[in-house]
Amino acid sequence: MSVKSCCIYSTGVISILTLIAGIVLVLSQVFQNILNAKIKKEIVLRNGTHAFDVWENPPPPVYMQFYFFNVTNPAEVLRGERPAVLEVGPYTYREFRPMERVNFLENGTKVAAVNTKTYVFQSDMSKGPESDLIRTVNIPAMVGYNTNTLP
């Protein structure tokens, strides 16, 4: 194999690799543009899109759990003793937050809605009924009471 034929062969291989790389780059840009257009079409909040449906009625349930410190000796606390507390809970509520009264403004470029939140008690996920009586210390009232009795 002579130097001339080796150069021609090398030039041909490099040309083919460059052509393939160019085609791949062009196709990747085309596919990227198609993908971006599809994402933009689905992500915009327009009536009838998946994004709008998920925004209007969020699918995953949201649970809120509350724990309280229950004062077990309220009469003694009123006489000035330290409160004995017991942690109670969780009291679990499911939060529903649909968008209501949805209005498209300014030629569909803005969306206005009312986000109402509703909480429903979940007795199966709670450690007590919703009607439990919980006694707790009213900190602002205690501070006010103590500032009046301080010298």
Automatic annotation (TrEMBL):
One of its GO terms (molecular function) is scavenger receptor activity. GO terms for biological process: protein targeting to lysosome; receptor-mediated endocytosis. The chain crosses the membrane at residues 7-31. Signal peptide: none annotated. Keywords: Glycoprotein, Membrane, Transmembrane, Transmembrane helix. Belongs to the CD36 family. This is Scavenger receptor class B, member 2c.
